[in-house]
Amino acid sequence: MMAHEFALVRRILKEQSGLNLGDDKQDMLEGKLRPLLREFSLPTLSHLVLAMTKPEAHHSRSRVAQAVTVQESYFFRDNVPFNYFIDVMLSKLMASRQKEHRIRVWCAAAATGQADAAAGVDAGTGTTLLQLPPAEVLRLGLVSNRGLIVIGGGFAALSQFNARLLSNLFEGWGRALFGWAGQQHFGIEQFALAGASLLLAFLLLLRLFSIALALLQYYGFRLERHGRRLTVERGLLTRERWSLEPGRDQAWTLREGLLHR
User: Which of 55, 90, 117 marks a domain boundary?
Assistant: First the structure.
């Protein structure tokens, strides 16, 4: 984008949205406008700027303003500083306040495009809405089919490399098992008992695998309300944490089978 084209886009943005870009924002502007080239089937940014100068280019000017401006602004829009505060700073501050177990933080945001804000934060005042004890997580693993899905997906992925992989495995296992059973001179009853035992062992391994997956994913699951936000934390080896404003959640669905109840 040439200097005069950047100046023209700056003027149009100020007229359309009131946004006054600085002289050092040309790289940022080009990065936000490039996705519009495919939308308008234009080869370069210079062609986009030329299209914006036409008298009937109301739609293209509006789309450029929408692409550059921040359509929504709220205090928790930038998650990086807040995640650092929760994961690093807060633990150190609370360790030095073990008796009181409470801190007060005043924060005034002053970044470009954000309104000044102040927040009083009381650590440890979140309301627990739902918490899964280990027994519930074990029950979830028992009634779920995650182990079967993962194993099935693994076999499906391996079969993409060798179409006869599954058939070769079953043929090899079948010959080995029936050869061993033939050496033991099994009768019909022994064959039926051995087949039932193998089936039960396979189902038991699947249940154990599903329990392990459930523990890795949902151990320590806790849903809390912190002010206007809902926070979810879970995980055994890796703790994962998400937060959401209830007003931004459009819908949620709960599905429970008979065994889950």
Answer: 117
Q: Give dist(CA 61, CA 53) in Å, integer.
A: 9
Dump pLDDT digits (tens) for 63-107. 888 888 765 555 555 667 777 777 777 777 777 777 766 777 665
Instruction: Identify whether the C-beta of residue 107 lies closer than 8 Å to the C-beta of residue 86.
Output: no
Partner residues linked to 233 by β-bridges: 222, 241
DSSP 241: E
Count of domains in the chain?
3
Among 103, 88, 104, 2, CA closest to 45: 2
- Who's near 49: CB < 8 A, 6+ residues apart? 1, 5, 8, 9
Instruction: Please work out, in degrees rounded to the nearest 5, the angle formed at the alpha carbon of residue 91 by the alpha carbons of 129 and 86.
Output: 60
Q: 26 is written with which tokens?
A: 């040309």
User: What's the rounded Cα separation, in Å, for the pair 224 and 243?
Assistant: 9
**Domain match, 156 and 248 both:** yes
Measured CA to CA in angstroms, residue 94 lies from 66, 87, 103, 169 at distances of 42, 12, 8, 56
Type of residue found at 23: D
Range of the domain at 100: 76-117
Same domain, 155 and 224: yes
Q: Say if CB 236 and CB 215 are below 8 A apart.
A: yes
Residues 50 and 154 in one domain: no
pLDDT in tens, 165-208: 667 777 777 777 767 666 766 677 776 777 788 889 888 888 88
